[in-house]
Design a protein that fits this description.
It is built from 20 helices and 20 strands. The chain is an alpha/beta fold.
């Protein structure tokens, strides 16, 4: 802790706002954003400076939580599916996904306790100036346990933390689950015409289980099927093993496929064209009345149990800590044990169980690996029904704060049953992170990065100097799938560009699932870039990206000056976190400084991904299966 800050007032005020506060004799603690002001404390900055220890604390608590639940006989009795699968291992809390859970707020709460304890003299009073129900309750419990007087400036608390801050957040989870159950039953009815669907190839085949949204139906008109995430892998497998491939696609809502009927139309086109000997099936085709009845009964059992059992508040307090994570994570608990997550997970379990039980033993299986709940369910049932070796493909980056990849090597028997046998790792950065997360080296195999292998095909590393007058004249902006992140980035650029002493053209490359409206940003001259990113990067010197997108890595490896906007509500989730030469900005002033700075730079070449146009690592792994 900075000495100047230690000598400040003993009265503290916590705010989520980035606005200036007029608070005499009070120390401002910024919950959101990356403030560097001398007389303020930024929780996000503290987390970044102490990331290793705070990450370990959260992971240790998470493991403590799951173990305490599993030791409870009531949980074992009512939260097991078919008497064997521990459903809590498919819950939001155990999954640890920032896209589904306010996990970062939980980590920041642990950091807040450290901040208050690290101050040389105990604070007298903490005041909360905000409107979040969960944060208010969390601060009140923490201050009470630390013996600090607590008060709040707000009279009403009606806002919830993301992702539970939508306009339907007030509806009880059980009501939303009932509606979702009816909706899913109705959507599965669309799959009733199964006579037209080809049966899977028999044993000795390769089974791919992947989400349907990355399946590119546009290429059907060119006479081929293609997965955007797997690229050339199907051909590599056929050429090196001679096996046929069975494709099991599960539906995930996306802009390309907003509902099941669009996915069904696309799949019918595949079958009608008879392009290849591979068999493509949608998971929903395996729905039966008995499966739907089982889902309803299990939902009724687990959700009723969640109402009857005492709330596990005590298990949400990390060992040796005065913090309670219950107010922040309780919505994850309710959604997992009585809400829409419970419906989806039960449905995935029964559908996968039906497919894998009836399908003749497959020699090998393959999934896209992010260690999500659906992957744990599939892996467990794959092994239960005695299929062959299962490969999990790391298709993207593995970030420092992506705690989904946590692997509990201490509880190996339990965790191995819900994991692939082999994890195909696409680069040195991912390899190093997985080893830190606890993965045993015997599970990991090096393979080329399928999505990013083009980066090794002669994209020259750019070296620029300030003599280049067009350095910032054309800026490439890489959009995100997240609407709010993309709009926040464009708003930042829209406010900054008028303050730059030259004409600047913004070239916007949208994410496939979201684009912007040019009229929303009147200060910008926007050119929309189409086509694949690999054909766009070579035309630019500078790229600006959001905090989460992996396209920032592609720009960085291609040699562009890469600027990353830090989201004020998140920690630094960028895959380029702590990479040399990357500029991170969180305000208009930050971005102006970067755009006005010396333009001499050179990205240090790093082995981020394993790249080889001949795919020798993939061929080696396939040969040794």
């Amino acid at each position: 802790m900075d000495k100047a800050k230690e000598k400040m007032s003993k009265n503290f005020i916590i705010t989520e706002s980035n606005r200036e506060l007029s608070c005499a004799n009070q120390v401002v603690i910024r919950w959101n954003g990356f403030s560097n002001k001398k007389l303020e404390i930024s929780v996000s900055n503290y987390v970044e400076e102490n990331g290793e220890s705070l990450k370990k604390k959260y992971i240790d608590w998470n493991e403590q939580w799951i173990q305490s639940c599993l030791k409870n006989k009531l949980f074992s009795k009512y939260c097991r599916i078919n008497g064997d699968f521990e459903y809590l291992k498919a819950s939001r809390i155990y999954e640890k996904s920032i896209w589904k859970s306010p996990m970062f707020d939980a980590i920041k709460l642990i950091a807040l306790e450290e901040i208050l304890l690290n101050i040389s003299s105990t604070p007298n009073k903490v005041t909360y100036a905000g409107r979040s129900t969960q944060l208010h309750q969390s601060y009140k419990i923490l201050c009470g346990n630390l013996g600090i007087t607590y008060s709040s400036n707000s009279i009403k608390y009606f806002e919830k933390l993301a992702p539970y801050n939508t306009r339907y957040a007030w509806i009880p989870e059980s009501f939303k689950a009932a509606y979702h159950l009816v909706y899913r039953f109705k959507s599965l009815y669309l799959y009733r015409n199964k006579s037209e669907i080809k049966q899977f190839n028999k044993s000795g085949s390769f089974l791919f289980c992947i989400p349907f949204f990355n399946f590119n139906c546009n290429h059907l008109r060119e006479g081929e099927t293609r997965s955007e995430f797997l690229k050339q892998l199907p051909d590599l497998i056929k050429d090196n093993t001679g096996m046929k491939i069975n494709w099991l696609h599960y539906f995930v809502k996306s802009e390309k496929f907003p509902n099941d009927s669009e996915a069904i139309k696309c799949l019918k086109l595949v079958q009608e064209k008879k392009i290849e000997t591979d068999v493509h099936r949608l998971l929903g085709e395996h729905a039966t009345l008995s499966i739907l009845v089982k889902v309803f009964i299990n939902w009724l059992k687990i959700s009723t149990f969640s109402f009857v059992v005492k709330k596990p508040v005590n298990s949400f307090q990390p060992l040796g800590s005065k913090v309670s994570l219950w107010p922040i994570l309780k919505n994850d608990w309710f959604r997992s044990l009585r809400g829409t997550d419970l419906i989806d997970n039960l449905l995935f379990y029964e559908l996968f169980n039906n497919v894998l039980e009836k399908t003749k033993p497959q020699k090998y299986g393959l999934i896209l690996y992010e260690n999500q709940s659906i992957e744990r369910i599939f892996s467990y049932l794959w092994h239960k029904h005695d299929h062959g070796r299962l490969i999990g493909v790391v298709h993207s980056t593995v970030r420092f704060w992506d705690l989904r990849y946590t692997f509990n090597y201490k509880d190996s028997l339990e965790d191995y049953s819900t994991q692939p046998d082999i994890i195909a790792v696409n680069g040195k950065v991912a390899w190093d992170e997985l080893r830190v997360f606890g993965y045993p080296i015997k599970m990991l195999f090096k393979v080329e990065a399928l999505r990013y292998n083009y980066l090794g095909n002669g994209l020259s590393v750019k070296i620029f100097n300030k003599k280049n007058t067009n350095f910032f004249k054309r800026i490439l902006v890489l959009g995100d799938y997240c609407k709010s992140d993309t709009n926040e980035l464009m708003t930042l650029i829209n406010n900054v560009i008028p303050n730059i002493n030259q004409e600047v053209f913004i070239h916007f490359k949208p994410h496939p699932n979201y684009s912007i409206k040019e009229t929303d940003f009147p200060n910008l001259k926007i050119v929309f870039e189409k086509g694949q990113l690999e054909g766009v990067l070579s035309k630019f010197h500078v790229a600006i990206t959001t905090n989460k997108t992996t396209s920032s890595v592609e720009a960085y490896i291609a040699g562009l000056k890469t600027i990353v906007m830090l989201n004020k509500y998140d920690l630094n989730f960028s895959p380029l976190r702590k990479m040399h030469g990357v500029s991170f900005v969180s305000s208009e002033n930050d971005l102006i400084k970067v755009l006005d700075c010396d333009k001499n730079f050179k990205n240090i070449k790093i082995d981020f991904f394993y790249l080889d146009p001949n795919f020798m690592l993939w061929k080696k792994m396939l040969k040794n299966l």
